[in-house]
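Re-run requested by the PI after the first attempt was lost when the workstation crashed. Everything re-entered from the original request form. Ligand of interest: adenosine-5'-diphosphate.
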Amino acid sequence: MLLLNSYNQDLIWTDTITEGVREILESQPISFKLSVESMDTKNFYSPDYLELLVEKYSLKYGDTTFDAIITSDDNAANFALTYRDKLFNNAPIVFCGVNDLEFSQKVEFSNITGVLEFTDFAGTIEAALSMQPGLEEIFIITDETTTGNISRTLLKELLPGFKGRVAFSWLDNVTMLELKNAVTDLPENSAILLVSFNRDKDGNWFTYTESINHLRSVSTVPIYGMWDFYLGKGSIGGMITSGHRQGMLAAEMAVDIINGVNPSNLPVIIQRSNQYMFDQNELSRFGIDTSNLPDDSIVINAPESIYQRFAFEIWLIGCVFVFMTIVIFVLMANNNAKKRAEIELEELNRYQESLIELRTEELVQRSRELEIANHDLKKLDSLKTAVLNTVSHDLRTPLTSVLGFCKIIDRDFKRHFKPLCEGDENLSVRGDRIQANLDIIEKEGERLTRLVNDFLDLSKIESGDISWNDISLDPKQLLEQSRPVLEGYFSETGVSLTLEVEDRLPQILADPDRLLQVLNNLVGNAAKFTYKGNVKLVATTTEGGWLKVIVQDTGIGIPQEELDNIFNKFYQVSLTTSDTRKVTRGSGMGLAISKRIIEHYGGELKAESEPNHGSSFTFTIPEAG
Ligand code: ADP
């Protein structure tokens, strides 16, 4: 692609167009090779010079086929149109910055489109009139360049429209010095409309910046201008035409053409989208209020507003504020929820407290009732013990008499009456029956005596009335002495008793009668509940040096769940029918008494058993200290 500029690159206008073109080309997905040529026709525009350019371009681009040519400003557009056959292989042309609005009417106009530059002089003059209410005269500055000439023609057409509102004077065909002298002395209610002044009467060349600098340094009135390159350099502003924008529009069209769009389908754009733009520095210099500017004006160099200056801080504070507000709302919501929960909790507490109070009252009441019941029970218990004591005592005396007389009767009957019955069968039978009955009375009497004794022992132990006649004794000796009594339990059974007594047993401090009571109970029970096998009494020493006695039988055993109960008063394990026949039930007090005796001496009585295999009762007693 070729960009053919009418003027030099150091002209801001040309530069901004080039920038616009490059911006569009660089944003494309494919890369374009762009050649840029500047014709410099503000300085040179003679036919000879143009011939020279033709030669130069033919030399440079004779072999090159351009896909499109973009031209900027009138001279380049005319040149390209004239020489495109010869120089540029008839490539399509996209022009911009063309002031000659009749350009598209030219005969050669084909395979070409572009942007016509509509310089809005009238809009700028209108702006000046509203900004300077007392404005009487406008001095128009132009030169003899193409732009200057075209602009002059256009202005001459539209100035009569302002007749009566403001006067116009031309400052053209002058040298820079003459111009500056003229500008220095302009009347107060006047303004300058700077069209262009790149070449003065003497042919001296000035860039846009140089020319505005010269004028700005001497002018006492505002300088209005229509191009962006004057703005910010000393021009107060006006209806501004943007070179950058035109470059962009032209480049977009060129890209479309390269992509296959026919130029005839891309209508010529008259760039009207100009913008009122003003420089705050110049507005301030002439005391012009921004409220007098046309609507939608852009003001450059305007003092930064507080928002512009502190935008970040304002946004930050705003965000913090919003965040805080949210936090406050959340906290408030939380607080409300908390308060509600507290109220509910309080109500619950009150309810629970009242419930507890109620329950406590009930409990106190129950406790009082229980205390009374306990007291009554204790009273009853001691009454029972007292009754038992008295009854047992009172029973023992007549029982002893009954047993005693029974024995005397039995002896007398055997000695004196039995011999009389011999020979009389009837009497013999009756005599035998009397003797058997006496035996029963004796046995039952003895049983009753044992029962009464057990009662008495238990109640004495429980009430603490029992007397312990403790002596230091050798368990081996005690066992040997009681062996015949213990063996006596087995005299009528087929079961044997074996005693395994260690030679050196620990000496103990105990009441021998009580200890014998325990042995009798355990061995007696073993005899009662063992029908075959044997019973073993083992006396040994524990690791801690205590006496340990085990009574082990091969009897009916005790169910596991009953083992703890057998030490309770009056407790008897229920027996099967086959067992019942053989056993004379006792009182259910033997083990309870034995346990209390052993525990009185600081020892322990335990039972282990396996039904149908046998039981083993073990007690320990500490060595005498
Ligand atoms: P009792 O005078 O009835 O024997 P005990 O207090 O001496 O009272 O024994 C309580 C119960 O424990 C017995 O009735 C019996 O059911 C059970 N019992 C005690 N020793 C044995 C044993 N060696 N074998 C089986 N059962 C036993």
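Saved to the shared folder this time. The CA atoms of residues 20 and 244 lie 5 Å apart.
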